[in-house]
Each structure stands twice: as C-alpha cells, then as structure tokens.
Specification:
heterodimer; A: Rossmann fold; Rossmann fold; 7-stranded mixed sheet; 13 helices; globular; B: alpha+beta; Alpha-Beta Plaits; two-stranded antiparallel sheet; 4 strands
C-alpha cells in the first residue's frame, strides 16, 4: 500500500481529496490552516476537482457547507478553537437539517489567555450540537477517520455530521508515516453520496429550514437521537469493513489496550493515549497490572463498551485534557454518569492534564499509576479531581 | 366565482407531511404552507367596493401572501383563509376601493 510521510493536517487534506469531496468552504486559523492550504494546492495543481469557497468567517464556512450539502454535494471544512466557537450556531443547523458534513477540528485551547496549543475543551464544548465526534490518536487515525466519517454520516439511517478531532501540533504539525490505500479501493469503500433530498433536483423541489410548531419540534429532536443510536451500529459496521479492506480495524468505539487482566485502566481521548500506551508497556514491566481505554467516539457515547470495561476493573483513571468549569473533566463527567445506574462501580478518579499544550509524559503517567494503586489498596479516593500539573 | 389556485394540495399535504416527518424537516411538497390558514391572524379585514375598482391589478400585485387572485372579469377576489389583514392592498389602491375594517369575531 502507498505510504506517505505527512503531518496530521496533510493526512486530513489527503483524506478529503481521496474521499472525493466536492465542496470545501473554509477560513484559516492556526493550527488548522495547513489543511485547507493543502486542499487549495491540490485544486491549483489540477489534482482534485473541488469547488473551493473562501469565506469571511467560520460561521460562513459552515453556512456554505450546509448549502452545499443541502444541494447534494459532499462537503468538508476544518477549523480550531475560536473558529469552532464562532461556528456554534451553524453546527446546530447542520445536524438539525440532517446534513452529512465532515469537519476536522484541530483541538486548540480557548482564549483568553491566547494559546494555540492542544486542549480538548473547544470540541467538547460543542458536545450538544448533534455532531458525532471522533478523537484521533495519530496521523493515520486522522486520515482513516475522515474516510470513515463520510461513510457513517451519509448512511441512510444516520444523516448527521461528523467532527474528526486531532491535537494541535502534536498531530497537526508532526510528520508520521500514513498508509493511504489506492484511490480505486477507496472509491469502492466510499461510493458517491446518495442524498435523500437535494435542492438541485428541480423536478422535485424541496424547502429546507422549515418552521416546526410545538406540535412537531419534539419529534424532530427524537429523530436525531434515533439517528445517533443508529450511528452506534453503523460506526461499528463501517469500522469493521474498513478493517477488512485496509487492515486497520475500527469496530470498537473504545479501543482497549491490555485491559483483559488489568487492575485499573487509564481512560482518555486523542493523542495523549499514544503516550499512555507506551507507559502501560513500561508500567507492566514494573509490576503494575494496568491497561488503556481510548475513547474513539465521544458522540455517540459508547455506553455499552464502557460498562463492559468498568465491570471488570477496580479503578479507572480518567485523563481529561479539558475542563468544564464549576464541575469536572468532561469525559470523567460523562463516564461517571453512564455507570451510575449500573452495577459496575469501579473507583474513578479524574486527572486534569495537559491543558493548553502542557507536556504530558510517561513519567506523569507513572506518578498517576502510583496514586491510583494506593487509592485502590485503600479502597477510598484521596480526592475526586486532581489538577495534576499544578505548580504548588 | 373562480377557485383559489392555492388550495389544490391541502389534502395531500395534510396527509403526508403531518404523518411522515422527514429527517431535517424537509418540506418536499411544493406549496405545502397552504395548510397553515394564516387568515386567523387577521385583525383588520379588507372590504372591497366593486363600483370603485378600475381593475388596475395593484392589489393583486402587491399582496405579499398572495391572498388576492383574479376572477374571470379580472376583479380581485380576497381569500380570507390566508389574508393576514396587513392592509397593503388598501394602501396601494388608487381609487380607495378597499377599506380596512376591524373584524369582530
């Protein structure tokens, strides 16, 4: 299979090209910009036939993608942090209108104070917009994620947009080997989009953006939730098919690493889970029975997989590179909530790590493992939320 | 009197669009808004005096709904199912053939 050494951003751009996107509307923002620059380069070189819409803001970028998608096109965009926040209104629009748009969000810390470094709070703040969210651990997952995202989003029973999320700089600007299947094999995996309705079918005119009175709105919300439930199945099917075709299996919404006999596991999302896997290997040599659970899909949330994991471990250390002020880490909050009405009650502790791109290393994970081991032996939490890096 | 051209699909719209709710609330039957009888919003009702009418079509042209159509002799007919009583027709009428009268229900 052809391999390229590319940054996470170029992996995203190649994936968009290989997915044969028809419309890209985007506005530059660090650290996302090199995605849309690369796509512009493909068009300028005649390598891709894409309608590129340069817009005056991210709000307009998503609006243009919504128009394109309603017209039946396969639409793509990319953004980060403040840009994603500016898009917020249109994110609801895309999911409410049931348009299978795919967007790459490069996780970047929200200002102020200004920061361009990795932090998941930008994407997690869009949790309730009706977008599916996939967190990539490495450049290969960025590439694979974009290809799978279109197939999941465009599934007839789903019709919801997908956000593929990668880490600022740790992935976006770091070069790694990415395996890119031949175009004809990708075309077989991802055939052209077959929209339910299009604005450009002039013999069957439609209206989008209708008003629903209190008599109907409720049912339209329920339909979105049914589509999310359906997406859980579709994600697993598509992930399995991807594995059969290209050798990398994504049928698990939570990727489990050495959890079979684990006493406790580290759970988290995105690039930091690569470091965690390295640490798990080292810690096992040092006598810790630990594993890693990488949450790939945050929306729809993998409830059943989490339950299956939680009932077999004594503890879960949830690593959140994000925070919901006035509460706790967002993944921790969700995971704890899922388990409340079940018989699985592992000790759960929330470690707030790596905000704004603070380095999170194997040594940090070793310290967390030591702390978790003590907690499990005592059977009692020292504290529920630990601001791990805090300068004291 | 001529039939309103805007009522044709009511039966189909009421049956299909209220029973079958499309993903994304797509309205796929053209003219489906006819099921919303916006005439119930009206406070002032246009009253038409045929003797003053010069058949200039201004009321017909300006009606934003449109709730005015023309009969066989090109006189305006007001469709009170959809007339919201905005009064634009009365304002535009050059011969004051239309007057707005408070409607008491």
């Amino acid at each position: 299979m052809p391999k390229k050494v590319v940054s996470g951003n170029y992996a995203a751009a190649y994936a968009a090209k290989h997915a044969r996107v028809e419309v890209v509307a985007a506005y530059p923002i660090t650290p996302q910009t090199s995605i849309i620059e690369k796509i512009a380069e493909f068009i300028a070189n005649g390598e891709a036939n894409i309608q590129y819409v340069p817009v005056e803001s991210e709000h307009s970028a998503m609006a243009a993608c919504i128009g394109a998608s309603a017209a039946g096109a396969r639409a793509f965009t990319a953004t980060s942090a403040q840009g994603l926040a500016l898009m917020h209104e249109m994110l609801h629009w895309a999911s409410g209108a049931r348009l299978p748009i795919v967007m790459v969000d490069v996780n970047r810390a929200m200002a102020p104070p200004w920061s361009v470094w990795d932090d998941q709070t930008d994407s997690l703040a869009q949790r309730d917009t009706g977008w599916m969210q996939f967190y990539a651990e490495n450049n290969q997952e960025v590439y694979d994620g974009v290809l799978m995202a279109f197939k999941v989003a465009e599934h007839r029973k789903v019709n919801l947009p997908v956000m593929i999320i990668e880490s600022a700089f740790i992935l976006s600007h770091t070069y790694d080997i990415v395996d890119m299947p031949p175009q004809e094999e990708i075309d077989e995996f991802l055939p052209p989009r077959e929209p339910l309705y299009t604005l450009t079918d002039f013999d069957n005119p439609i209206a989008v953006g209708a008003l629903a009175t209190p008599a109907d709105y409720y049912e339209f919300r329920y339909k979105i939730e049914k589509a999310m439930e359906e997406a859980r199945k579709v994600i697993k099917e598509v992930g399995k098919e991807f594995g059969e075709r290209f050798g990398r299996d994504y049928s698990q919404m939570i990727e489990l690493y050495k959890t079979e006999d684990a006493e406790f596991v580290f759970m988290g999302m995105g690039s930091l889970m690569g470091t965690v896997k390295e640490a798990v290997d080292l810690l096992r040599k040092e006598g810790y029975k630990v594993g890693a659970a990488k949450v790939r899909w945050f929306r729809p949330f993998p409830k059943e997989e989490l339950y299956e994991l939680a009932k077999n471990v004594d503890g879960i250390a949830v690593l959140d590179r994000n925070f919901s002020f006035g509460q706790e880490g967002i993944l921790f909050n969700e995971a704890k909530g899922v388990l409340y009405n079940t018989d699985a009650k592992p000790i759960m502790k929330n470690y707030i790590v790596g905000l704004g791109g603070r380095d999170f290393t194997v040594n940090d994970i070793r310290a967390i493992a030591k702390n978790m081991k003590e907690i499990i032996e005592k059977g009692k939490l020292d504290r529920e939320i630990e601001w791990y890096h805090l300068k004291r | 009197m001529a039939e309103s051209p805007f009522k044709a699909d009511i039966e189909r719209v009421e049956k299909e669009l209220t029973e079958k709710m499309t993903p994304g609330a797509i309205a796929y039957i053209p003219g489906s808004s006819v099921i919303n009888k916006t005439g119930s919003w009206r406070v002032f009702k246009p009253e038409f005096n045929k003797d003053k009418c010069i058949r200039c079509f201004l009321c017909y042209t300006y009606c934003p709904e449109p709730a005015i159509y023309l009969d066989e002799e090109n006189y305006p007919v007001f469709d009170y199912d959809y007339c919201k009583g905005c009064g634009i027709c009365a304002n535009e009428c050059p011969t004051k053939a239309i007057t707005m009268v408070r409607e008491v229900k």
